Amino acid sequence: MKHRDRTETNLLDPRLLRLFDALFTTGSVTKAAEKLGQSQPTISIWLARLRAELDDPLFIRSAKGMLPTPRAEALIGTARQALEMLRRLAELRTDFDPTTAKRRFAICMTDGSHVTLLPSILAHVRRVAPGVRIEATQIGADTPRMLQSGEADVALGYISDLDAGHFQQALFPQDWVCLANAKHARIRDRITAKDFRREAHVLIRSGTGHQLLAGALQEQQIVLDVALELPGFLGLPAIVGTTDLLATLPRHIGETLAHYYGLRVLNCPLPIAGFTVKQYWHARFHHDPASQWLRGLCAELFQQQEVRGLHRSGRPKKRVPRDLQSQ
Amino acid sequence: MKHRDRTETNLLDPRLLRLFDALFTTGSVTKAAEKLGQSQPTISIWLARLRAELDDPLFIRSAKGMLPTPRAEALIGTARQALEMLRRLAELRTDFDPTTAKRRFAICMTDGSHVTLLPSILAHVRRVAPGVRIEATQIGADTPRMLQSGEADVALGYISDLDAGHFQQALFPQDWVCLANAKHARIRDRITAKDFRREAHVLIRSGTGHQLLAGALQEQQIVLDVALELPGFLGLPAIVGTTDLLATLPRHIGETLAHYYGLRVLNCPLPIAGFTVKQYWHARFHHDPASQWLRGLCAELFQQQEVRGLHRSGRPKKRVPRDLQSQ
DNA sequence: ATCCATTATTGTGAATCGCAATGAAGCACC
DNA sequence: GGTGCTTCATTGCGATTCACAATAATGGAT
Fold it and tell me: Which nt sits closest to B28, CA to C1'?
């Protein structure tokens, strides 16, 4: 059948367990063969192997059929338990039912996403998955480690240099806008590059976008008149709404804040590289039904179009999950 | 690995279960290979098969080694339980310890054996196996069926035409003797054929020996003067001890009765075929430790020399158990 | 002794196995 | 970004095992 394992007692092949069960039940090698879908000679050979491995004749031929020995009777219970356990192993499925699930999902995101993405996620989850709790955590240097360890389930945003072993899916593209006071004395429906250089600005010193903005300014050797720097978005709408300062932001957060606070949104005159907001997760969880549900939810809520990830050797280094597209 | 069973979900090969366990424990295909005594490529192939059969990657490569997926974590407990059950199956032994055993043994025997064999068996059993109970049952036409079904464990005596599926072991040979009153008026130290024909006799109309005796008489056309027929041995000693009647018996029972009741034992002048007292048991119980113990006991108590059983096609129809000789 | 149904054995073409050799991948280091 | 190391995945191939048709052996009935 197979080479004897060098390190441990030979364990019974499941087919021999099935044979044991079938022969005990039917008392006939011929009937057991039919039951197991094999020929009678094959089953006779299996019986010989079973006898050798259990060191007992197990079944003795008689006019009444094959009768079990005391050892067969002693072993059949354990054999059937082993079979049942193997069947259970083969059949075990773990589905995820949002309507009944009780678990916590940790989502890494920038604090900007607290405004743009989290409210939609939360509203949806509260409606369809009442037992689910969402925890928002910061995107940072240890986000990849948190995704791998399972401390975080998914990351939303833009991570420029993710290790192997992670999947990513594009959600929506981002370009840049300027926010201005709706009653700004000098800025009406559009802003020129000249305006942009002249006016005073407020900067947010955090998040992915900040690094891209700073890079573009340096690249184009533009020195802005930065009247104020904020560590986050919290006070930004109040500042822009009561001063003549301009703020330059990724479109999504910009339009969202403008909407809530009655600010003016203008296309940014400065050419700044856009980027794609994506969701990221570790390959360990790729097939996990719970993780699939969460990612499907985010895709449903935020996905506009898909952009292929980076490639090497014909296979994605950071793979785009095909199955998510068919969900 | 092996053809997919046609009738049922494929169950995991125990080697794959061992791999699952080893990989979960070590986090390394290379280390798992060492543990399982296979090469690394072999184990990589096994892992591929495990992944296919469980429909999940199970372990994802990372700098920390192979990390389990949620499905692997969900299945490992059941996999380990299945492994444990298989090990238990491989290791299960059923010994028989006479000093502690509590069970009943049914021994088929003629009522003559109640006198010749049972007392020795009982004395021994009471000394070394206090929890064992002996039940003596009649040897008869259904003795083979009782041996096969387990209603009887062993039969002691002479069964002339036993079916297949039974073992037998010779215990001791039997020839014939005559019993006479120690104060018999005419019979002193020897009995002639003439004496035998002239004297009145008492016959026991039961047991194996009776048929042999009757056959011999008919074959030699001898008509005995039968003054009394008894259904069994019960009253025999009293009759022979108080009359001049002769009794013709197998030697063992004859000498035993003579010993107890002070009767005279004489070699039978009539040539009557001897026979061998054997113990018989069904092949189902051949390897059963309890049955082996009982048979060993009987051999120890009664065995004098061994006579081979009948043969056909080079193999005993009623097999002589070699292993019993080495016990 | 013959016959029947069932189990055991044999010979063989087909399938699968384990592993050496090597490619691919993940990461540390420069 | 390139290089090197360790580990996992893949390929090709000789060796081993498999299932089964054909048939022998066996247990019992007649």
Answer: D7
Distance of CA B268 to the CA centre of its chain: 34
ipTM attached to this prediction:
0.84
Domain parsing of chain A, residue ranges: 14-91, 103-172+276-326, 176-267
Whether A212 contacts A275, CB under 8 Å? yes
Q: Exposed/middle/buried for A81, CB within 10 Å: 0-12, 13-18, 19+?
A: middle
Q: What mean pLDDT is predicted for residues A158-162?
A: 80
Strand D neighbours among B 156-185, CB < 7 A: 163-165
CATH number, span A103-172+276-326? 3.40.190.10
Please give the average per-residue pLDDT across B297-303, as a whole number. Answer: 93
Q: With CA atoms as reference, report the closest residue to A155 among A135, A175, A180.
A: A135
Chain D nucleotides reached by a protein CB under 7 Å: 7-11, 16-23, 25-29
CA-to-C1' span, A105 to D4 (A): 40
pLDDT (0 to 100) of residue B321 = 37
Strand D lies under 7 A from the Cβ of residue A39? yes
B66 touches strand D (CB under 7 A): yes
Q: Confirm or reject CATH 1.10.10.10 for domain B14-91, answering yes or no.
A: yes
Q: Reply yes or no on whether the pLDDT at B58 is more than 60.
A: yes
pLDDT band at A326 (very low <50, low <70, confident <90, very high): very low
The alpha carbons of chain A give a radius of gyration, in whole angstroms, of: 32
CATH 3.40.190.10, domain A176-267, yes or no? yes
pLDDT at B317 over 60: no
Region B103-173+276-326: CATH code: 3.40.190.10
Choosing among B284, B293, B294, which should be mutated to test the A contact, i.e. which has the most A CBs within 10 A? B284
